[in-house]
Amino acid sequence: MLVYLAGWTLFALFFVSEDAGRFLYQGHAVQWRPYLIVWLTTAYAWAFLTPFVWWLSGHFPIIGQKTWWRSGGIHLASSLCFALIEEVLFASITPWFGLPWFQRNFAATFRAVVPIDFHLNVIIYWLIVGVQHSWSYYHKYAERERASAQLELRATQLETQLAQAKLNALKMQLHPHFLFNTLNAIVVLVRQHRTREADDMLTNLSELLRQTLAGWETQEVPLRREMELIHLYLEIQRVRFQDRLTIETSLAPTTLNALVPSLLLQPLVENAVRHGVSDGSAPVRIELKSKLKDSLLEIQVCDDGPGVSAEAPGSGVGLSNTRARLQQLYGERQSLRLEGLAGGGTIVTVLLPYHSQEGSTS
Hints:
CATH architecture of the largest domain: 2-Layer Sandwich
Oligomer: single chain
Largest sheet: 5 strands, mixed
Number of domains: 2
Number of strands: 7
Distance between the termini: 58 Å
Number of helices: 9
Order of helices and strands: HHHHHHEHEEHEEHEE
CATH topology of the largest domain: Heat Shock Protein 90
Low-confidence stretches: none
Shape: rod-shaped
CATH superfamily of the largest domain: Histidine kinase-like ATPase, C-terminal domain
């Protein structure tokens, strides 16, 4: 506030110095008191009016608006009104000081000062509007710069997260236990002369690895594409576990083009297989579901195996990595929840903001 008042005081002193310089140049004595009263009254009247002008300028910007003519008309009318309001304030205050140029009453002072200061007041109004527009655009520019820096930082973090997710997926898929069991199952199929099944298993394994490496820089993929990769993985597991593993899908057609993080489902399905089928001997059913829930995409990975808690070995790492990636991509607009069912089984529920692949139809 002190800086604000000091600025308007300097405004008054500038015009006092102009009047004083003119009189000194002409060789006349300077009447300091009347000029100080006149210009300080003018300055402080505008100090009082400026917040209102500032508010109007912020709510009715002229530059960069399609309805600039409407805002311009509002400010033109406002500039005339504020010029008169300043004259009213001036004529209400200065008669108390007994200035030599004005009579000691409001009406006479108002009539005398209007033709003198009206145009200056209009100019001051527009100068305030110009300063407000400059201030507003400076802040918008600074905000865009900050947002751009944050987006660049976030993009870098997302690239790192994506690379880490790819490496984690490859690490799980190339896990020695997984490869050993897969290759051993292929050997058994070959020895039993079940060459067609062995060929299918090798083909699926090759395609799984190829698709994992394909599109390395893609951050999001359609759910349809993600499910193709998961089906390859589950087909390999189905050959391994035969009748012990049943796969069911219940995907709403409207969700198939929804964009999801690449390799989102891999660690979730991996946990369901490892803790649902590998850790037991009973048949296990794994179900993949998707649906729209208001403006959110809900994906569930369900199994009826022994069940696993969020603190179980392996599941904690997979879930924490997935949660970290979702947080980076969607902030607070996402969630990942693991629930153990009372009678056995586990449900992992993922909620994401729904947005579809550009140019696609549901």
